Amino acid sequence: MTIAATRSEPFAVGRPGLVERLQVALPKLVLAPSFAAILLFVYGFILWTLYLSFTNSRMMPVYELIGFDAYRKLWAQPSWYTALQNLAIFGSLYIGLCIVLGLLLAIFLDQKIRGEGVLRPIYLYPMALSFIVTGTAWKWFLNPGLGLEKTMHAWGWTSFHFDWLVNPQMAIYTVVIAGVWQASGFVMAMFLAGLRGIDGEIIKAAQIDGAPAWQLYRRIIIPMLRPVFLSAFVVLAHLTIKSYDLVIALTNAGPGGASQLPSTFMYSFTFTRNQMAVGSASAIMMLMTIVAIMVPYLYSELREKGR
Amino acid sequence: MSIKMKLLAGVVLAAAAGFAGAAQAQVKEVQMVHWWTSGGEAAALNVLKSNLAKEGYAWKDVPIAGGGGNQAMTALRAMVTAGNVPTSVQMLGYDITDWAEQGVLADLSPVATKEGWDKVIPAALQKFAKYDGKWVAAPVNVHSVNWIWVNKAVLDKIGGKEPTNWDEFIALLDKAKAAGVIPLAQGGQNWQEATMFDSVVVTTGGLDFYRKAFIDLDPAALSSPTMKLSFERLAKLRTYVDPSFSGRDWNLATAMVIKGDALLQVMGDWAKGEFINAKKAPGTDFMCFRFPGTQGNVVFNSDMFAMFKVGAERQEAQYALASATVDPGFQSSFNVVKGSVPARTDVSDAAFDACGKKGIADLKEAVAKNTLEGSMAQGYGQKAPFRAAYQEVVDKFFNGQIATADDAVKQLVDAINAAK
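^ Those are the sequences you sent over. The predicted structure of the assembly is below.
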């Protein structure tokens, strides 16, 4: 359909020269390879995964359809519920804390303090590390036998106790700590850019009217940062759902599968437990979750554009 | 334009020449996918490398870290799907059967018949190394998992002796606890916990019960009071482990015993390789005992080199690798370093240390008495989905995710059913 449209357009205008026709076609030509690649490697494989989730694939893919069996097995797995519960805990805390901390840091840095040029990159640099490095570093730091707890004991504070990393009830929160440490600086940078974009005249006008500082932020500045909140939310939400390497490096989904996330669940079922169909079904469930978030967002965005 | 064309042609020619060179070089080369990357294991593998080098075959390593080989199996799937087939892959148990079912494994029968593998390799191993009557893998060794590894200095200090049953074992661990030593060095990965549980089940219910529960997957055995008691005993062992064991690799747990921070480790005999690598001697620095109450039974796993179907130009090198692997000289010198015992029963135990001699004698006894059985935790009891389900339940229970032994039994039955 697209190709037909490309061809018919130039002819409809009459008979333009070769150069003009090339100019019209060039953007489409340049976009075509990446479009085709995305079509195949993203949407093609989504459909393939969907297909596999209705088969009885185990170690290698098989193509005989057997219905909803994989989904039944998936929802009968206690560890799938653990994974979903952890995603909810991790997602809400990670997104919430990153936004709160990022906003606070940005507001403090925006007070025209000395040394902002030094502080800003310090907060931003954790984002330059890969998740594997972050996870490994925090694993050593939080391990009671190696890191923080041992150091505190060595310094004489022997009643100090911090074993979240090896405590099945708390392990998921260590993932939150490491994740927030890494991403909040980045969110700060987004808010800082937003703050710098606010018209100084409005703030001056409010100050002349005698608004105290916190009222200024609560009533004027933070509401004006609404687009930044939205961008931060979208960036963090997709980081949440795809987060895999952080958990693998930090807790390896343990102890006892206690910090399992849907992504680690999907990987282990597809690739190490030889139940590819169940793994595919969980991947499809993850996709559905994203769709449920993204569709209303896209809908509202497109509607605003249409207005 | 023409200069560009010439340049392009030159590049294409050079690339083609490069490929041709590579294709020719492959004839005298074996590509191995393996996960023997820790000290003792890597040293043991070097024996095979140098043996093949003497015959003029180059060795190309495709090492992937991580004991148990989960990562290796994932990488392998991608390699085979892409048509980039390695000569051989280190593999365990039912994984070999799974790959053989895909029709991608080579037929080693010419080598096997010539060298008489059928006569010298125990039937329990042939079950995995053969598929449909044809040899598809070359067994390297027999490991057994029902061992405990004890630091002798610590044992003497607390005045302990070899425990021969469960109660003596607990008494020994209590002694260590009272003396302020970590009684049990344990790694925090699910396969390690499950490997220990294999031994606990054998000592609790006997080998017949183990077979009924894990080899036959008999629901009555899986949900029996004996299984519940096994879980209760595992919970008891959990109380002797130091708090920061989560995520610890097995060889780090072994290092705790080597250094004397911990009294003992329950681990397969690959742990001995770490002791040897740290220049420790059996009998004087460390002791190897059968897991209390399992003397006479050998719960095994066996490292095998599964051979993949390769083109005719690489077959010669593959046969050479297979032959070099099963060669008695290599089986002896490799296993002396690795800690396991030879996969063939006709190898002299002269070169082995005390633990190796005991391992060889135990294996012979087990073959004769039919008490040699595959390890559930290591993929020699059941196929991957069942093994993973088993590991998961044991792991959850060991880490307190499943609170009671009753729940553990119930979840084990459910998980086994869900894997069917």
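Chain A has two domains: 2-52, 77-306. The CA atoms of residues 266 and 279 of chain A lie 5 Å apart.

Shout if you want it in another format.
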